[in-house]
Amino acid sequence: MPFTGASHIRIARPSRDLAKAERFWVQGLDLTVLYRVTGEPGLHDLLMVGHPDASWHLELVHDAGHLEEPRPTEEDLLVVYLDGPVPDELVSRLVSHGGKRVSSPNPYWNAWGVTFEDPDGYRLVLSTRGWPNP
Q1: Is the model's pTM score more than 0.90?
Q2: Mind listing the pLDDT tens digit for each residue in 13-50?
């Protein structure tokens, strides 16, 4: 099958601590654990999270024997378009589950969303806009 708009996308990133990452993405953002591998000889530990019906998921990888240190920048963003206000309860939940609310160097995201760093330093933006936006 050719690459189309219906093709599934996996965003893969290294993680220092999968338990902390799971706490942020699953308990904080309310994603679902789609798949997990832990402690199998010859394989690195991984955690896949997302929504079961979505055409994307996030894969977080940890290999204690060959630690790949996350190297996020302020512009490595995962943006979720909420098409409305970011609920205060969601902001509180993300912070209480290991996220850090941060200001964006890009004024667009400060005007149109709330930005967090996950436990590995990658950024999540909850945008008040919809997609596509005018």
Answers
A1: yes
A2: 999 999 999 999 999 999 999 999 998 777 789 999 99
Of the CA atoms within 13 Å of residue 78, those in its CB half-sphere come to 20
Q: Is 21 helix (H, G, I), strand (E, B) or coil?
A: helix
Distance of CA 69 to the CA centre of its chain: 17
Q: At which residue do the structure tokens 């599934």 appear?
A: 8
Query: Which residue ranges form the domains of the chain, and what is each CATH number?
Result: 9-62 (3.10.180.10), 77-127 (3.10.180.10)
Q: How far apart are CA 39 and CA 56, in angstroms?
A: 25
Angle at 103 between CA 102 and CA 109, to 5 degrees: 115
pLDDT at 134: 67
- For 47-67, the pLDDT digits (tens) are 999 999 999 999 999 987 777
User: Would you say how long the chain is, in residues?
Assistant: 134
Instruction: Specify whether the CB–CB gap between 62 and 104 falls below 8 A.
Output: no
